[in-house]
Amino acid sequence: xxxxxxxxxxxxxxxxxxxxxxxxxxxxxxxxxxxxxxxxxxxxxxxxxxxxxxxxxxxxxxxxxxxxxxxxxxxxxxxxxxxxxxxxxxxxxxxxxxxxxxxxxxxxxxxxxxxxxxxxxxxxxxxxxxxxxxxxxxxxxxxxxxxxxxxxxxxxxxxxxxxxxxxxxxxxxxxxxxxxxxxxxxxxxxxxxxxxxxxxxxxxxxxxxxxxxxxxxxxxxxxxxxxxxxxxxxxxxxxxxxxxxxxxxxxxxxxxxxxxxxxxxxxxxxxxxxxxxxxxxxxxxxxxxxxxxxxxxxxxxxxxxxxxxxxxxxxxxxxxxxxxxxxxxxxxxxxxxxxxxxxxxx
Amino acid sequence: xxxxxxxxxxxxxxxxxxxxxxxxxxxxxxxxxxxxxxxxxxxxxxxxxxxxxxxxxxxxxxxxxxxxxxxxxxxxxxxxxxxxxxxxxxxxxxxxxxxxxxxxxxxxxxxxxxxxxxxxxxxxxxxxxxxxxxxxxxxxxxxxxxxxxxxxxxxxxxxxxxxxxxxxxxxxxxxxxxxxxxxxxxxxxxxxxxxxxxxxxxxxxxxxxxxxxxxxxxxxxxxxxxxxxxxxxxxxxxxxxxxxxxxxxxxxxxxxxxxxxxxxxxxxxxxxxxxxxxxxxxxxxxxxxxxxxxxxxxxxxxxxxxxxxxxxxxxxxxxxxxxxxxxxxxxxxxxxxxxxxxxxxx
Lengths: 346, 346
Fold this sequence. Notes:
The structure is a homodimer of 346-residue chains.
Chain A: E1 2-8, E2 11-16, E3 28-36, H1 42-47, E4 55-56, E5 61-68, E6 80-83, E7 86-87, H2 93-96, E8 107-108, E9 120-123, H3 126-129, E10 131-132, H4 141-149, H5 153-163, E11 171-175, H6 179-190, E12 195-199, H7 203-212, E13 216-218, H8 222-232, E14 238-243, H9 248-257, E15 258-266, E16 274-276, E17 288-291, H10 296-308, E18 320-322, H11 327-335, E19 342-345
Parallel strand pairs in A: 11-12, 11-14, 12-13, 14-15, 15-17, 18-19
Antiparallel strand pairs in A: 1-2, 1-4, 3-5, 3-9, 3-19, 5-6, 6-10, 7-8
C-alpha cells in the first residue's frame, strides 16, 4: 500500500510499504476513506532529526473494516468506522473513568503500530477503539469531513471545553486560531458560553471562529493581548481559558487572562516541561490547570450521532482535499498557513 | 493592647501597641477569645529579613464584637464571631463565585490591617467577613477550639478536598501530616473517600490522621514514597491528591501518585514559582492542578452549624494552649515539632 513516512524535518515521502496484517486477535484492518494532516504533525516537520528508517505518520482516519482478528466481536468486515487517534480497550478502570488516552492496554498510532496517512491501517484493541457509524447511507463530502473531524480535531477542542467545565453564561477565552482552537470555540458555544474571546491573528481563520460563536477576536499577543482580554471581561478575566497552541507564550497568556477560580484547559501539546504555577501565576487566585491528550473515544458515540443528525458540522476546518500522493504538498501548505487543515481522500 | 510582632527570623515579641480603632465605616473591632499560630507563620519565622519596624502576626481568631462602624448592619456589639483569615465583602462577582480570598475589596490580616495574635482586632468589611455563631451558650473549650479551627486550618484542608472534587468511593492521598494535612484527611473522610493514604512520618500526628479516617500511612518520601502509594492503589494512583506542604518535593510526590484524570489540589503555599506541568508530569495523563488560599468564608456558615451540632470537631489539631505572653514559646514549640498547633486563650 501507499503510506506517508517522514525522514527528517521537512522531508515527508509517500512510499509503497507492505500492507498491514492482523498481529493480535484483537486487531482489525481498516481501509481508508478519509485521513488528514494534524497541526501536531508540524512539530516533527519542524524539528525531527534525520531518521534513516523513517517515521510512519498520521493518526486521524475514517474507513471501512476490511478484516478482523479472531477475538473481535463488535465490528465486522464492511462496517464504516471512526478511528480515534489513540487506541484503547474501553474497559479498563481508566477508560471507565473517561480517560482513554491513558488506557492500561492502549497506545497511539505512528511508529510501531503504523501511521494512518496510508491506504490501510492496523487498529489494535478494535472492539474498544472503533466506533461504527450507523445509517451512513450515501454520505456527502461534508458529512465525511465532519466524521473525520471527530477522530481528533473537533473532539480535542471539545475536550478543552469539557475539562474546563464550561457552563452556560460563562466567559471563555480561546487561545489559538488553528483548527483545534476553532473547534474549541464551537464546543464552548454548544455548551452555552455567553462571551467567547478568540485570541488569533489570521483573519480567514478568525472569520470561521466568529461563524462558530466567537463574540470577540483579539489579535494582540503577550501583555497587550492579556490587557485587551481583561478589559473585555470587565476586569475580571475569563472563567475558562482553552489553550490550543502548546507554546510558553500561550500558557503565559492563559494565566494572565484567567479569573480567580477559573480553569485553564490545555490541549495544545506543551512544548515545555516547567512553567509558572506558584503564588504569582495560579495559586494566589485559585486558578486551575487541566487538559491533556483528548480521550476522543469517551465522546465519540454522542458526537457521531450529532453529526449524522446534522446538528454538528465541524468538518469546515478542512479547507483543502488532496490525494495520498500529494501528502508532502499538504504538509507544506499547512506549514505555510496556506491551508488550515488538509484532508486526504482515498 | 498586647500584640505579637516579628522582627526577623526567630525573633517574635509580644508588645504593647495602640488599640485598633474603626478606620472605615465598614470596620468592626473584635475582642479576642481564642487565636492561634499557623504553620504558614513558620515560613517568616525561618526566613524573615531583619525588619526594624516589625511585622504584626496572626490571622486566625474567634471573639466578641466590641464596636462596629456606621455602615455595619449584620453584626453588632456582643455577637460572638468567627474571623476568617481573609476579609471580603461577600458580594462582589468573585465572592459570589465562591473565591473570597480574591475578593475585589478584600485582603489579608497582618502588616497594614493588623495581625490577629493580639487582644483586639480591626476587621475590615465586617458585614461580609464575620460569621456569627448562633446559640453558643456556655461553649466548652473543645467547642471553642473547633470553632477556631474554622478560621483557617480545617477549612483549608476542606478546601483541598473540595477543589479536588473528592467523591464517595474514591482513593485520596494526603501529602503532609501537619494540622492542614490532618484536616484534609478529615474532610476527605466526610466526603466519603474510601481509601485515604496519609504521607507523613510523625507518629503522634499520623495517629490523629488514622483517627480521622486515614486507612494507610506512608512514611517514605520521594520515589520510594511514590512507589508505595502506587502499590497501595493497585498501580493506578489516587483520584485526588491533597498537597498540604508547599515545598517542591511534595509537588513532585503529588504528580507521581495522581492517577490519569486525577486532581492535585494544593493548599500548602508554594515555596516555588515554576514546576513541572508538561507532557512528563501532568499533561500526558490529563492530571489536573487546583487549589490556592482557602475561601474560608464560602464554607463557614455550614461548618459552624456542624460544629455547634457536634457533628464536626476539628479542634483536636490544637495540642497546646498558651496565654498571649507565651506566644514566642508557642512559635518555638511548633518549629521544634513539639506542638502540632498552638492555641492562644485570652
